[in-house]
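Step 1: inspect the first sequence and its tokens.
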Amino acid sequence: MPISLVTGAAGFIGSHVVDSLLADGHQVVALDDLSGGFADNVNPHAIFIEASCTDHLKLAHIFNEYKFDYVFHLAAYAAEGLSHFIKRFNYTNNVIGSVNLINEAVKHDIKRFIFTSSIAVYGRNQLPMREELIPSPEDSYGIAKYSVELELKASHEMFGLDYVIFRPHNVYGERQNTGDKYRNVIGIFMNQILAGEPLTLFGDGEQKRAFSYIADVAPIVAKSATHNDARNEIFNVGADIVYTVNQLAKAVMEAMGSTAPLNYLPARNEVVNAWSDHAKVHKVFGAPNEISLADGLKRMADWVKKAGVRQSKPFEGIEIEKNLPPSWKGQLKD
């Protein structure tokens, strides 16, 4: 039985990857520091360890204790817009934490290192974004993700560490942290509806995105560990149909069976339109029976109504206040 380490395992995508690995016959060690995830997200059949990827001594101990075959690295603080203002935090968690894992993977001859990057690496590139494009990230989060991609390529060439890189985008579904005020627009909208608040949109709401249901993403990530054609490849993964944020707001209200006023806030400095091409991942893994946005939102809405309103602590440790969106200033602590 293969043994796999999953980081970020109490988080949204990570917990679903754990489920898929267990279903595929892996023994799973689930690692999370619970800074953004919830312990009850972790499948009880996994071995749960509360720890941070930034703790290299703890990681060394864990790798010595368990003889891992595969590493699935999903732990990250994935707030693109906020990352401009928390650079030190961003790079410590998203780069140094990743390097700590890569070091241990090399030392322990891990068979394959699976990393979830982001389409944030592309920046304002031509649409749809394809894997052969040269990345040009525009925010600190995207820069961090791309640097880890480059490190994995360098570690493969120097040490023979095999890898698979996924660039997902706007993934949603059950177990998402709807209390996070800075990322995951669908969760934010649903939480605002439950709380009886208006839906907040930045700019005119005409930004375009594709929104990916978790069941179309997590199983592919899990299967990549042993898929021969995935070895040392990069894949975009997610949905193909594009929506504006205005259209999304309407669809979320329909799924929740409720209406809410729309509160348009000043536009943020962000990539306006972002979606990717998935021909490569479909060729290797097969085209999924993609779940429609309406069906996916309904499934998530049913779960959200049971989970109720979630509250997240204000982000502590803002590093730069210059040009911080006004709507965030009251939510952040120095």
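Step 2: inspect the second sequence and its tokens, then contrast the two.
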Amino acid sequence: MSETEAVEQGGNADALAGMDTDMAANPQPTFKLLRDEMPVLSIDIGSNPGVLLSRKEDVDFALRHTEIFSSNVDAVDLKNKRPMIPLQIDPPEHKKFRKLLDPIFAPRKMALMDQEVSDLVNHLIDGFIERGEVDFAKEFSVPFPSEVFLTLLGLPMDELDTFLTMKDGIIRPEHVTGTAQGSAEAGAYQQKIADSVYAYFDEILDQREKEPKDDLLSHFLSAEVEGDRLSREDILDICFLFLIAGLDTVTATLDCMFAFLATHPEHRRQLAENPDIIPNAIEELLRWETPVMMVSRVAVEDTELAGCPVHKGDHAIVVIGSANTDEAEFPDAHEVRFDREVNRHIAFGGGIHRCLGSHLARLELRVALREWHKRIPEYEIEPDHELVYTTGIRSIDYFPMRFTARA
């Protein structure tokens, strides 16, 4: 389906909501078409009516007005037993959980992990650098964020496969079952894995209660929110979100960034020759690539956007990837510039539900790009191979790369 056909059909949520692999590989033209032609587009999302929002002005409104567009459990169903904390909690309860969790992921706190994260990056690179080739996804972008997460939780690295199974089973159950997304088989498998996540962390918390450690899970067991201790259910709901939000998104971001750099040698060489620009480059690549193209909200009252009615109960697909390439916000939106001085992208979302782990993600990305380009400044996608991006969240399952390491 062409981009124009997708817009003209309107109701085809699959093509428009990131379910088309061609769009996932090159989403920016479709984003522009939506902004120009149908910035508020009525679509069907499963059995639910909804709207697709593509202009930054409307996207910002939806993300910042939780009293109208809620992030509650009706917005996304991942087979979780209760709302994921704090993502699916709206004000006023949301504030007390962010008050507890924000300091844990503050920039200064995350900076203390730099050496640990560097060691993880270099250990992974050690495993393939002598070969001059690598499946970047399998050997780097997939294991790396999970290893960081295991370090945070004080869990052994041999739990890596368990974490990857849980993550994939919830986010992409259809890939495991080989059935269509939304099928009964995929849904049943997703539910089975979701239940196993709660059971897994429940068992670990039992262990931490008996033998506390200097890790995040032990901290949660003693933490208080406005004078009250976190309940076991609260901690499990936080852990469920951490698993979902902290692994796949960093993997996808690394895939998108390295795919761009592998095909844009002039940008890649800027990083290799001047690593001081890496933090700015990360922000620009987050803006341009936006691996999590869109998020979901649900209207809890009737409203109107750009003259279009939105009814209570409607789902709103908030296309943050389109907002990040909106010429109204970025006059040179379709240029990738590592020297961009003002970059108000929303790759981590916006409003009170802005990504809790954004500072951790930035640390992981910064260290990965820094250490990689120290050792591997020249690389490319294996010739004659075309990368295939997954739908929804733009990751790459198979990413063959060949490279030249520094002497």
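Step 3: confirm your contrast with the notes below.
The radius of gyration is 21 Å. Residues 1-15 have pLDDT under 50 and may be disordered.
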